[in-house]
Amino acid sequence: MTAEEIITLLKSQANPKNVKGMARFGINSKNTLGISVPYLRKLAKEIGQTCPPFDGNHTLAQELWDSGFHEARLLAGFIDNHKEVTQKQMDAWVSDFDSWDVCDQVCSNLFNKTAFAFGKAHIWVKDEREFVRRAGFAMMAVLAVHDKKTSDEKFLEFFPSIKKYSTDERNFVKKAVNWALRQIGKRNNNLLKHAQALAKEIREIPSPASHWIAGDALREFSKRAT
């Protein structure tokens, strides 16, 4: 299937009612067709089956991304070949993020598999743009779950940024900071101990966002310890 054929198919599945529902969950309705993620995952699988063996389609993914459609960008993250993803592409795509779901899905399904994942997490959290910073913390959270080989020390290197940006009051940022802290703490007992200590430090910062991040994380850590 060509990008044009896929876009035509996606448009045929448009559901304005779903767009309104998605907006209630904070999903940007601009260029959004209202198509569910399960449908997009099924379509991604079908695209792969049309050209086996399938190891991602880098060119098609970029063409879908460039279309600007919300669902096309989600699909691009599902079908791209992480081995062909460059740092330039990652920076370009992250600059286009305008909705938390695209940010999280692309980080979870594509960017975390690249050799640049840890480095980009450190860089993106320093960016003032809301969804770029969110992407940095989303990467931390996803790596904590899916990267089974990296040492604890690499994750502890994220802690200064988690503490520093815990004062960012923007909803999509503070939730991502919390997500990163919780997932790192749940990785193993050693990191749990360090994450609990960090959460207690964050709790002392005079910031509503910091108090919420720390309190929510400590509650979850307490359940895990029990």
What proportion of the residues is helical, as a percent range?
55-70%
SSE string: HHHHHHHHHHHHHH
The first-to-last residue Cα distance is 51 Å
Number of domains: 2
Give the tags.
Leucine-rich Repeat Variant; 226 residues; mainly alpha
Structure in words:
The chain is mainly α and 226 residues long. The protein folds into two domains: 1-84, no CATH class; 94-226, Leucine-rich Repeat Variant, CATH 1.25.10.10. It is built from 14 helices and no strands. The protein has helices at residues 3-12, 16-24, 37-49, 58-66, 70-79, 87-96, 100-109, 117-124, 130-146, 152-156, 159-164, 171-185, 189-203, 208-225. Helix 8 packs antiparallel against helix 9. It is globular and about 55 Å long. It starts with a helix and ends with a helix. The mean pLDDT is 94.
Question: Care to give the gist of this entry?
Answer:
Helices cover 69% and strands 0% of the residues.
Fold blueprint:
Layout: H1 3-12, H2 16-24, H3 37-49, H4 58-66, H5 70-79, H6 87-96, H7 100-109, H8 117-124, H9 130-146, H10 152-156, H11 159-164, H12 171-185, H13 189-203, H14 208-225
Helix pairs in contact: 1-4, 3-5, 4-5, 5-7, 7-9, 8-9, 9-12, 12-13, 12-14, 13-14
